[in-house]
Amino acid sequence: MNKTFFLRVIYRNAANLHKITSSVESVKGVKIRHLNFISKGKSFVGVIAFEASQLIDFEKIMTLIRRNRDISEVERIMDSSLCC
């Protein structure tokens, strides 16, 4: 059974959104369900909702996204009503 996880991501305007989404989908069995990004000055703020079967898949995704130096902040959102 898949569980939906939510991440709030803040990244520089020069960063490539495709690089972030491809990092998420590179983990086997993970599918992006929702993207919501808006421009806030010199950076973008947004939420990625994705399905993963295990918590370890979530940890892999967090590690992959944090490796990108253009990402300012990545945090897990526990309450899905805050993000969509």
UniProtKB/TrEMBL annotation:
This is ACT domain-containing protein. It comes from Dyadobacter endophyticus.
